[in-house]
Amino acid sequence: MKRGHPGAWLAVALGGLYFLAPLVATFEFSLRMRRGVYSFDAYRVVFASGNFQASFLYSTVVALVTIVVAALIVVPTAYFVQLRLPRLRGIVEFITLLPLVIPAIVLVFGFIRLYGSSSVLPLTATSLGADALLTFGYVGLGLPYMYRSVDSGLRAIDVRTLTEAAESQGAGAVTILFQVILPNIRSAILSGAFLTFAIVIGEFTFASLLDRPAFGPYLQLIGASRAYEPAALAVMAFALTWACLGLMQLVGGAPAAGARR
Amino acid sequence: MSAAPTSSRRLPAPDFAAWLGVAPFFVFAAMFLIAPTAWLLVGAFQDHEGVFTLGNIVRLGQPSIRLSYWLSLEVSAASAILGALIGLALALAALRGGLPSWLRPTLTTFSGVASNFAGVPLAFAFMATLGRLGLVTVLLRNVGIDLYAHGFNILTFWGLTITYLYFQIPLMVLVVTPAIDGLKSEWAEAAEMLGANSWQYWRLIGLPILWPSIIGAALLLFANAFGAIATAYALTGSSFNIAPILLYAQIRGDVLHDPNLGYALALGMLAITGASNLAYLALRARSDRWLR
Question: Does pLDDT of A258 surpass 90?
């Protein structure tokens, strides 16, 4: 077995071919915009487009707000469950898995029905309300990853000793959370944040059905109406995903097991 | 004897600060995960006037809806089974195939990226690869293999399945890697000392230990594909009517002309993804015993 099983080489070679071919093909296709010669025209057109800039900016802002809200919800929960409410662990972990079980399209359907313009809390009636709804939807999508990341970050530090030390200095719960615990699990939060960003930035289902001017619906529109720009956008999206996951490994997170869209 | 009063005195003191800290989480879960889903479930069992009925569930059996569920089941099952087998083969090759050691971290990192590279951009990538003008289509045509003349089309069942495999295979690699790592080298050594060849080792020891993980992972892949819509929608528009695309059209414009039937359609999807996720968790609990 030392020099490598021939079957293993074959499997890796075929796998490599399948996974690299679309990357090469997409890149090649994205260069074909100018007839007869390779050029970066498709990228230039995309970057110059106002809709691209606006939708990408919108999705970036939503993603950043999502990350902050998710951290504010998850960090205290994981901290108190670990330290003072261990009997809630089962139910909390179950809830964090729900977004993986409920398909996004089903969840957003429920949003529209529950927070539609004729409901008690008509969030979709105003643009800001719909933005908030989209953000909360994304907090849900990122919840499984953010929670797992923060929870394992908390396990890696001595939460009890840190808390007791801070308490003996007279610190209250809020001070402890923000000034003692948070800095110690910064890399865990960042790692959850990068993954959340990668999932959210090009998300289509929520954004499209809530009618938000986000990057995902923009991508879909370009795909339906243009030839070469979609390939350029796919190359950028792949690079962005790679960057997010790379940064995640750099800050020391566990490898991510699959987002689902 | 003297310990009893002490413990009863310090027992019921609700930890208000801690409960306050976890409250936002539960409020969030109630408002944005549980209530919206529960609302749909209620609607699925009501008629227009809000009276309880099973009629919506029964009407899921009408041909157009049954066909879309069936297409979804087929695509999800095909991409889950193929994804599980190919992912398993890749993981086994990289972890146990005696290949250079840099392959393992490369595969894991790439799988992390590719399993998250889904949705609209993935559809674009496969259009550029296997679409009518895609690189692979053109290259194959140049050597005399015309995919499209042989009935292949990226906008069909196999086109969608091949596209889904791009995130299914990496997900399988990530899920099954810990299980393969759980196969202790002592077991292989013991089998070898007793005269087993490697085929016998895998047939009698390796696979019997791995199978709950493999089946469980396949179920996870199945649910993963079943709920996915963005890739299919960007690839085929609404021409390939899988269940999530039908539901999308229903949310957009009530194509079924019956809102409550739409809720039942959503309930049906949730039942399928829920059941396969539960089975996955049960099988994982079973296989975890070997990983300790």
Answer: no
Query: Residue A250's pLDDT is what?
Result: 84
On whether any CB of chain A is under 8 Å from the CB of B30, the answer is no
Mean pLDDT of B152-170: 93
Query: Which residues face B102 on adjacent strands?
Result: none
Strand, coil or helix: what is A144? Answer: helix
Question: Model's pTM, two decimal places?
Answer: 0.90
Whats the size of chain A, residue-wise? 261
Q: What is the pLDDT of residue A174?
A: 87
CATH number, position B146: 1.10.3720.10
What is the spatial distance between Cα B43 and Cα B154, in angstroms, rounded to a whole number?
37
Do B149 and B254 reside in the same domain of the chain?
Answer: yes
Q: Give A258 to chain B, closest Cα distance, Å.
A: 5
Are B113 and A259 within 8 A, CB to CB?
Answer: no
Tell me the average pLDDT across B231-246: 89
Measure A242 CA to nearest chain B CA, in Å: 6
- Residue length, chain B? 292
B193 residue type, one letter: M
Per CB-CB distance under 8 Å, the chain A contacts of B38 are: 110
Give DSSP secondary structure letters for chain B. -THHHHHHHHS----HHHHHHHHHHHHHHIIIIIHHHHHHHHHHTB-TTS-B-SHHHHHTTSHHHHHHHHHHHHHHHHHHHHHHHHHHHHHHHHHHS---TTHHHHHHHHHHHHTT--SHHHHHHHHHHHSTT-HHHHHHHHTT--TGGGT--TTSHHHHHHHHHHHHHHHHHHHHHHHHHTS-HHHHHHHHHTT--HHHHIIIIIHHHHHHHHHHHHHHHHHHHHH--HHHHHHHTTSS--HHHHHHHHHHH-TTS-HHHHHHHHHHHHHHHHHHHHHHHHHHHHHHHHH-
Beta carbons of B97 and A11 less than 8 Å apart:
yes
Query: pLDDT at position A255, please?
Result: 46
Structural domains in chain B (count): 2
The CATH architecture assigned to A52-250 reads Orthogonal Bundle (1.10)
> Is B85 within the bounds of a domain?
yes
Q: How does residue B4 score in pLDDT terms, banded at 50, 70 and 90?
A: very low
Residues of B in contact with A89 (CB under 8 A): none
Average pLDDT (B53-62) is 92
Query: What are the domain boundaries of chain A?
Result: 52-250
Say what the ipTM of the complex is: 0.91
- pLDDT score at B7: 45
| Residue of A80, A105, A222 best to disrupt the B interface, most CBs of B under 10 A | A105
